[in-house]
Structures are given as C-alpha cells and as structure tokens.
C-alpha cells in the first residue's frame, strides 16, 4: 500500500496519494482508467447499463478476454458493479458506481476534446511526417 505524502496529512490521519510516486496505489487505478479498454469501457457504461456482449459490441475491437480482465479491474477499483441475477440462463449486467460515473464524466470530457481537435492532430501528424519528424526517422538532423 502506498504511503501518505506530507507530514500535515499524516498528522491529520488523512492519506494523500501521489500518482508520480512509484509505490502509490493510485498509479494502478490510473492505468486501469486510462488504458485503452478501461477508458472505452467506462465511457460505454456511462451511456447505459449493459450486458457483457452488449458492452463488447459497443467497445468495438475488444476481445472477450480483455473485456473480462478490464471489467474485473474496474470492479475491484470500485468503478463498476457486476449485477448477476439468478435466472436461467444467468443474466449479468454491468453499471457504473457513483465513483465510476464521476470518472467516466471526466474521461468523456477528454474524449470530446480529442475528437473535436482531431483535425489539428491530423494536421500535426502530416507536418511531422513530411517535415523534421520524417528526417529524424531516417537518422538525419
């Protein structure tokens, strides 16, 4: 477990986490949230409660194995709830917790920004590929 950062926080009995510290537990949660499948899964679940296969179709390209691993990690971090109903066949749904919804809202704001600014990103990539970046790739200065 990570150690509290700062004497003031320790004196008050409050943990303060620093994702830049190697052993801080917030680092693994950040990785779960910001990884390709974690961020897309949280974004998809912000739209609706979904069953596994619905979620897999919404997060195009994710394998069953990766989605299952992602959901387990997000559930362990308290971001997702797995609701299994004892029916035949079993009915399992996934939804966000309050923490997961707050996290997804912030991720979706970032996703909106990236989508909105893609023309700028594509222009920068073209400039890089035809300018200095292409020369650096060939070992030229």
Q: What is shown here, in short?
A:
With 141 residues, this protein is mainly α. It is built from 8 helices and 3 strands.
Walk me through the structure.
By secondary structure, the chain is mainly α. It has two domains: 1-34, no CATH class; 36-134, Arc Repressor Mutant, subunit A. Helices cover 60% and strands 10% of the residues. It is built from eight helices and three strands, in the order H-H-H-E-H-H-E-E-H-H-H. The protein has a three-stranded antiparallel β-sheet. Strand 2 (80-85) and strand 3 form a beta hairpin. Helix 2 (26-34) packs across helix 3 (36-47). The longest helix is centred in the last third of the chain and has 19 residues, at 98-116. It is globular, with a radius of gyration of 20 Å. Residues 1-11 have low confidence and may be disordered. This is Transcriptional regulator, HxlR family. Residues 24-122 form the HTH hxlR-type domain. Keywords: DNA-binding, Transcription, Transcription regulation. GO terms for molecular function: DNA binding. It comes from Actinacidiphila paucisporea.
């Amino acid at each position: 477990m990570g150690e509290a950062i700062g004497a003031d926080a320790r004196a008050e009995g409050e943990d303060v986490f620093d994702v830049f510290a190697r052993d801080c537990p917030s680092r693994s949660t950040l990785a779960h949230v910001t990884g390709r499948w974690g961020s897309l899964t949280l974004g998809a679940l912000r739209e609706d409660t979904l069953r596994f296969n619905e979620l897999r179709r919404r997060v195009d390209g994710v394998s069953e194995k990766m989605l299952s691993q992602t959901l387990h990690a997000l559930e362990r971090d308290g971001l997702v709830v797995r609701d299994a109903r004892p029916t035949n066949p079993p009915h399992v749904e996934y939804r966000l917790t309050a923490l997961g919804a707050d996290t997804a809202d912030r991720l979706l704001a970032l996703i909106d920004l990236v989508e909105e600014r893609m023309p700028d990103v594509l222009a920068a990539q073209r400039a890089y590929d035809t300018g200095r970046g292409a020369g650096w790739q060939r070992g030229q200065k």
